């Protein structure tokens, strides 16, 4: 496709093992494997390989190896391979270099510099296999106090509560819209959320009508700038409504679903004509201030009769704490912060890798600011973007999150190998594509099982770690930074995170 | 013979009990004031639970002559007279001081680095801007200011008709030092025998911890401390004493005094039923307990604890929800006892009429002129 571009991968085939079954040929949407029937030989077009490893995984005889090609250019610490390749792409096209999934730059991952505490003698640890361990939490605004009345010696609640949504585990699937991901992938998330007692987020692509009855109880529906698929019925078939202002992978940038991906089904769900580009602008054109945001928040509450918490999702940026404070004051019940490692279906490479700040720092700053202002319990805080493991999740909670959004981790559970090619629409794993030939590769029954297993194993791990801390309810860890220590961090970083260094 | 001797000595090397402080509380539900002998003897009986690094007493009905004034017990570390001068200038500006004196101590008792201890009987002297601030809030804000802004000065207690006496030493030594058995009488006595776990043994850090009329003695370790502390900071309670128990004192003040919740409800906030239990409640209880857990999740006290919380007219005992630190209650006539050990109660009241152990999260509430404490007897195990 691009001239002068060196291939990134080498496809090696062990001829002694290959049985010419042609599975690899059929599995590769990029046409890397070509079979010449006359010669009875396979050829590989290395330069088209994206390293998704689909063929490697499915080859029945393990005849294939796909390896990165590392040392093609003369080694140069400044002009690294990706810098050169991107320049060549730009020179060839005059366009913006696109990419998919999350930032792969070696920026500091704070999770890997935080360690947890454990009980020893005076405060015994708790064994979750024998003792109850509670992970349930509620998302939404909490009152400052409760009114309780007594009649005949029995206490009764007399306050009216704000709408809150329980989640059995503080893990929620991130916004991934139908259109960006395939229908089977979307359905798998919904099914898994339902089974595990958590939530999935429709993203901005709408919620198919036939899914509303069954999955409404587990849906967070987004109201983004494009307003795709938004009507009263859509809003009412959700537990939470999320206004998407920003996204960690591309702060300050809107979305674009190319017309080729807008099939009949997508068109219907998004309420747009078939085959048209679905453009969601960066700003919501009715929101240029906190007051405007407040109007939208209350319009949505009004439309749903004040029965659903409204969340506002923003990208982690420099003054995120002040913005979050404004959002809470504007009436939001949940603030979702998406960090620089958040994934995406498509984003300009330069933006994805260079705009925004790590979520760990943003989360700590937001939690602190909301507490300093005495409004932390007026909202829940969701941390999103780059949660890779149960330990990342539990550390996020110790830093102040009520729950975490998991996106890429869920995709990986479905099969994604982080080839960063989601924007091409040719995801060989059937996740980020609308091509019916490819989407058939996912079976929601089976894929949702994998997702449920993922949630299950993370919750077991979280329970083990909580038990180790001598804590038997997840709420007692929220913002409990005493249980965290930093290793290999500088003073300013420890200050922003609000944690002590190890040994202190 | 040798073997037996070996075991005998082992019994008194309290390896196992080192992590479990001794707590004791006694209240006369008729409001009759009595001396400190019972409290001192009971805590002495649990000596193995102490460490010699901290102990203290809270006494209610202590200053009948000054009962309308806030009694501030303030210590000056290292007998720092400059701190005393600063504090007194601050007090003069913000309060009417009707009487003050050094808290009498026994010069024959040797303790580790005793500070200068002083008591002031004061009433608020509000500026016009503070006119509408309730007295209690006013006093709390001033106490918080003293504790967090003036080095070497700490307010031990700040309630009316109540006083806290504490320090580094075994509790009976503290009692001797302040001559509690000779000089004072009260209708509630609570006592604690050990310095707070994981904190330096210092005079301010010993139990009871108090704010206004509330005093707390606590055994255990609160693993939710960080979450509790951050929540309380949002309500302008600043933890300055480097101990996890402090959060309990502020949490009772916030929930019971400011928000007016009764202890029966507060107990369910500190030690709530498990979700599994809530799920099986009737609708009205389910609604209440769900709301409590949602709203007050940051005040759930996790980890092992037994506490005795006291304020005027009430003494409350509570253990954590999975009862890692049990509490024993006992009663005879108008006297009601709470303790870490039944033996300590029986040591001071051999002809006890009742003794019981309530389940985790079920408070024993001892109230003036009632038999409310018997309610927990019905639920005991
Ligand atoms: S999938 Fe494996 S065995 Fe089949 S044709 Fe490809 S390389 Fe050969
Ligand atoms: S979703 Fe598909 S295209 Fe995107 S990174 Fe994963 S495997 Fe590659």
Question: What's a concise summary of this model?
Answer:
Chain A: [4Fe-4S] cluster 2 binds at residues 28, 49, 52, 55. With 504 residues, chain A is α/β, with parallel strands linked by helices. Chain A has helices at 23-27, 54-58, 81-93, 183-196, 209-215, 232-236, 264-270, 290-303, 320-329, 349-354, 359-372, 390-399, 408-414, 436-439, 444-469, 491-497, and strands spanning 9-13, 33-36, 41-44, 64-68, 98-99, 114-116, 137-140, 148-151, 154-157, 164-167, 171-173, 200-201, 219-223, 240-244, 255-257, 278-280, 310-315, 334-338, 347-348, 380-384, 403-406, 484-486, 500-501.
Q: How is this fold's topology laid out?
A:
The complex is a heterodimer of chains A (504) and B (381).
Chain A: E1 9-13, H1 23-27, E2 33-36, E3 41-44, H2 54-58, E4 64-68, H3 81-93, E5 98-99, E6 114-116, E7 137-140, E8 148-151, E9 154-157, E10 164-167, E11 171-173, H4 183-196, E12 200-201, H5 209-215, E13 219-223, H6 232-236, E14 240-244, E15 255-257, H7 264-270, E16 278-280, H8 290-303, E17 310-315, H9 320-329, E18 334-338, E19 347-348, H10 349-354, H11 359-372, E20 380-384, H12 390-399, E21 403-406, H13 408-414, H14 436-439, H15 444-469, E22 484-486, H16 491-497, E23 500-501
Parallel strand pairs in A: 11-21, 12-13, 13-14, 14-17, 17-18, 18-20, 20-21, 22-23
Antiparallel strand pairs in A: 1-4, 2-3, 5-19, 6-22, 7-10, 8-9, 15-16
Helix pairs in contact in A: 4-15, 9-11, 12-15
Chain B: H1 2-11, E1 23-28, H2 37-44, E2 55-60, E3 70-76, H3 81-94, E4 95-102, E5 116-124, H4 135-149, E6 153-157, E7 162-167, H5 171-178, H6 180-183, E8 188-192, E9 209-211, E10 214-220, H7 225-234, H8 246-258, H9 263-270, H10 275-279, H11 283-295, E11 305-311, E12 314-319, E13 328-332, E14 335-339, H12 342-348, E15 354-356, E16 364-367, H13 374-379
Antiparallel strand pairs in B: 1-8, 1-14, 2-7, 2-8, 3-5, 3-6, 4-5, 9-10, 10-11, 11-12, 12-16, 13-14, 13-15
Helix pairs in contact in B: 2-12, 7-8
One iron/sulfur cluster binds at residues 13, 18-24, 59-61, 63-64 of chain A.
């Amino acid at each position: 496709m691009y001239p002068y571009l060196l291939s990134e991968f080498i496809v090696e085939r062990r001829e002694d093992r290959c049985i010419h079954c042609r599975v690899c040929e059929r599995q590769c949407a990029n046409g890397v494997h070509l079979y010449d029937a006359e010669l009875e030989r396979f050829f590989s077009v290395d330069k088209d390989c994206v390293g998704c490893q689909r063929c490697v995984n499915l080859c029945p005889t393990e005849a294939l190896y796909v390896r990165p090609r590392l040392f093609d250019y003369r080694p140069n610490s400044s002009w690294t391979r990706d810098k050169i390749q991107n320049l060549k792409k730009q020179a060839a096209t005059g366009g913006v270099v696109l990419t998919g999934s999350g930032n792969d730059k070696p920026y500091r991952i704070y999770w890997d510099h935080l360690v947890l505490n454990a009980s020893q003698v005076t405060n015994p640890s708790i064994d979750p296999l024998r003792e109850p361990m509670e992970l349930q939490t509620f998302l939404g605004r909490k009152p400052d106090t409760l009114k309780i009345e007594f009649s005949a010696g029995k206490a009764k609640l007399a306050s009216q509560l704000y709408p809150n949504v329980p989640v059995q585990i503080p893990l929620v699937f991130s916004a991934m819209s139908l259109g960006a991901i395939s229908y089977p992938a979307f359905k798998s998330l919904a099914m898994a959320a339902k089974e595990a007692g958590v939530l999935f987020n429709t993203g901005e692509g709408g919620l198919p009508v036939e899914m509303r009855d069954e999955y409404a109880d587990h849906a967070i529906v987004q109201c983004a700038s494009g307003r795709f698929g938004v009507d009263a019925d859509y809003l009412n078939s959700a537990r939470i409504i999320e206004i998407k202002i920003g996204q960690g992978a591309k702060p300050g940038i809107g979305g674009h679903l190319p017309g080729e991906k807008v099939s009949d089904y997508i068109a219907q769900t998004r309420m747009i004509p078939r085959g048209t580009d679905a453009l969601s602008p960066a700003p919501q054109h009715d929101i240029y201030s906190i007051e405007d945001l407040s109007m939208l928040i209350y319009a949505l509450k009004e439309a749903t009769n004040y029965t659903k918490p409204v969340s506002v999702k923003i990208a982690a940026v420099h003054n995120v704490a002040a913005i979050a404070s404004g959002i809470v004051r504007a009436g939001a019940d949940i603030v979702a912060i998406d960090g620089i490692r958040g994934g995406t279906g498509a984003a300009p490479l330069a933006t994805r890798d260079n705009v925004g700040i790590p979520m760990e720092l943003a989360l700590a700053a937001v939690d602190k600011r909301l507490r300093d202002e005495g409004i932390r319990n007026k909202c829940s805080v969701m941390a999103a973007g780059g949660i890779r493991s149960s330990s990342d999740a539990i550390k996020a909670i110790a830093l102040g999150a009520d729950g975490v959004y998991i996106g890429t981790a869920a995709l990986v559970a479905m099969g994604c190998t982080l080839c960063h090619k989601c924007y091409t629409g040719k995801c060989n794993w059937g996740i980020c594509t609308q091509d019916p030939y490819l989407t058939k590769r996912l079976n929601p029954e089976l894929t949702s099982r994998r997702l449920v297993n993922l949630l299950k194993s993370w919750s077991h791990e979280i329970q083990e770690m909580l038990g180790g801390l001598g804590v038997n309810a997840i709420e007692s860890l929220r913002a409990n930074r005493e249980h965290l220590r930093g290793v290999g961090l500088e003073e300013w970083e420890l200050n922003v995170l609000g944690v002590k260094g190890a040994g202190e | 013979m040798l073997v037996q001797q070996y075991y005998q000595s082992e019994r008194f090397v309290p390896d196992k009990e080192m992590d479990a402080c001794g707590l004791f509380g006694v209240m006369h539900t008729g409001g009759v004031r009595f001396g400190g002998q019972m409290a001192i003897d009971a805590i002495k009986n649990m000596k193995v639970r102490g460490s010699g690094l901290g102990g203290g007493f809270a006494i209610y009905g202590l200053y009948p002559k000054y009962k309308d004034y806030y009694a501030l017990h303030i210590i000056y570390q290292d007998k720092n007279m400059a701190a005393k001068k600063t504090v007194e200038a601050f007090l003069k500006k913000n309060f009417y001081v009707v009487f003050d004196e050094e808290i009498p101590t026994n010069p024959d008792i040797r303790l580790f680095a005793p500070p200068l201890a002083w008591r002031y009987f004061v009433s608020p002297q509000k500026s016009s801007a503070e006119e509408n601030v309730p007295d209690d809030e006013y006093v709390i804000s001033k106490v918080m200011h003293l504790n967090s802004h003036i080095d070497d000065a700490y307010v031990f207690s700040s309630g009316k008709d109540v006083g806290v006496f504490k320090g580094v030493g075994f509790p009976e030594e503290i009692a001797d030092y302040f001559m509690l058995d000779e000089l004072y009488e009260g209708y509630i006595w609570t006592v604690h025998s050990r310095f707070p776990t994981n904190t330096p043994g210092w005079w301010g850090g010993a139990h009871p911890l108090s704010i206004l009329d509330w005093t707390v003695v606590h055994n255990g370790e609160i693993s939710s401390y960080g979450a509790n502390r951050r929540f309380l900071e949002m309500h302008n309670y600043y933890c300055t004493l480097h101990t996890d128990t402090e959060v309990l004192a502020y949490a009772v003040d916030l929930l019971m005094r400011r928000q007016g919740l009764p202890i029966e409800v507060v107990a369910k906030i500190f030690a709530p039923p498990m979700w599994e239990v809530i799920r099986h409640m009737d609708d009205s209880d389910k609604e209440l307990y769900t709301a409590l857990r949602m709203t007050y999740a940051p005040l759930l006290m996790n980890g092992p604890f037994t506490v005795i919380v006291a304020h005027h007219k009430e003494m409350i005992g509570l253990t954590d929800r999975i009862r890692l630190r049990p509490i024993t209650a006992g009663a005879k006539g108008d006297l009601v006892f709470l303790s870490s050990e039944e033996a300590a109660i029986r040591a001071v009241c051999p002809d006890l009429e009742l003794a019981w152990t309530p389940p985790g999260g079920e408070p024993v509430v001892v109230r003036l002129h009632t038999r409310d404490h018997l309610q927990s007897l019905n639920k005991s195990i």
